[in-house]
Structures are given as structure tokens and as C-alpha cells.
Design goal:
By secondary structure, the chain is mainly alpha-helical. It contains seven helices and no strands.
């Protein structure tokens, strides 16, 4: 039942891009790191941070203040998240939901973030 409801809900690219940023370089990152440590997945966290680095560089890191922000994040990063969620038919990979589950104490939610970042690949125009 929840899957049908999740599919029917409109995908908010800007919200999901913002949520992913918060998890990777914002206030949610400490909670993410604690969750990864709790489930003995610091190596996967390191891989996720490495995967995020290309996106952070393309979009401009929150700490540097450079690059694109806001609506552009939604257009590029949010679209990429939407593509992964749609291709995998996995609404539970939406960063907003992952953040909510982590905030609620569900450490295993970090696995969803690791999967999402693995499937995001590199941003358009970035050569690996």
C-alpha cells in the first residue's frame, strides 16, 4: 500500500536535492556518520563521501559557497535522484525519507543512502 502512495506522490526535486546535501555536507552528516559506524559500515560511508565529492564540486560545496545552488541543485541533482528512484522503483531511496529515518534512530537507513550514491554516478559533464 505504501508503495502505491509513494508512486502517486509528486517528486520534489529541490526538496530531495536539499535533503541529500544536508546528509552529505550539512547538519545531517554527523548523524549519517554515527549510523554508518553503528552498523559497521564506515568503509561504505567513505565510498559514499568519495562519490559525493564529484557532485559537490559540480554544484559548489555548501561550505565554499561556489557553484550552483537552490533551483539549480533541484534541476541537476534532484533530477538525478529522481532518475535513480524511478529506475529502481525505490521511493525509500529518497534522501528526505532517509534523513527522517536516520533522525528517528534507524541506523540501517544509511544503506539506502549508500545505494543511492552508488547509482547516481557522476554529474553530467564530469569525466571520471
Amino acid at each position: 500500500m505504501w508503495m502505491a502512495e509513494a508512486r502517486a506522490a509528486a517528486f520534489d526535486r529541490t526538496r530531495e536535492a536539499t535533503a541529500l546535501r544536508r546528509l552529505m555536507e550539512g547538519p545531517g552528516h554527523a548523524r549519517l556518520a554515527a549510523a554508518a559506524a553503528a552498523v559497521n559500515q564506515t568503509a561504505k560511508l567513505a565510498a559514499a563521501v568519495a562519490a559525493w565529492a564529484a557532485w559537490a564540486a559540480a554544484l559548489g560545496s555548501a561550505t565554499s559557497g561556489g557553484g550552483r545552488r537552490g533551483e539549480d541543485d533541484g534541476a541537476l541533482l534532484g533530477a538525478a535522484v529522481e532518475r535513480v528512484v524511478g529506475q529502481l522503483e525505490a521511493p525509500h531511496l529518497q534522501p528526505s525519507g532517509i534523513g527522517e529515518r536516520l533522525d528517528g534512530g534507524l541506523d540501517a537507513a544509511c544503506f539506502g543512502l549508500f545505494t543511492l550514491l552508488q547509482w547516481l554516478g557522476t554529474p553530467p559533464g564530469v569525466v571520471k
